[in-house]
What we know:
Layout: E1 28-32, H1 35-38, E2 44-50, E3 61-64, E4 67-74, E5 76-81, E6 84-89, E7 93-95, E8 102-107, E9 112-118, E10 123-126
Amino acid sequence: MSEFAPTDFSLVKPADTAFKPGGLRDFFLYRDLGIAEATHGKVIAHLVKANSPPDSGTGWHRHEADFQIVIMTKGWAKFMYEDQVTLVEAGDVVQQRPGIRHFLFDYSPDMEYLEIVSPADFKTVDVEAPACVVPEPTPWK
C-alpha cells in the first residue's frame, strides 16, 4: 500500500475542456487536463499553446517545483537554459531540474506542449539574467 494520499480516477476528453487564457503567460492559452484535481494538488498537467507572437518572451525565471517536464507536441520553442540556447521540437521531452534559470524567448505559431509539474501549486520566481545574450525571436508571418 502506498504511503501517499490516494488519487482519483480521471478521464478528460478534448471536448471536455477548452484552451483558455488566464494562465501564467498572457501570450499562451492553457487547457486543464484535470490532473491537479485528481491528484489533490500533487501534480498539474496542462496543454499550453501559442496565442500571440513572442514579442518579449517569458523573461528570466525559475520554478519552485519538485518535478517539471515539457513534452513538445507541435511546432517548436527556443529556450535559454542558464546560458545555453535550446531548441525544443515536436516529439522532444525536457526535464527541467528544480530551480534552473530559464527563458522561453521564441516559438512557432503552432507551438503546443504538455507540461507536467509537481506540486500543482508550484511558484514562478523572476530571477536575474545570467551573463549571456538572448537572441531575438523569429517574426511571425
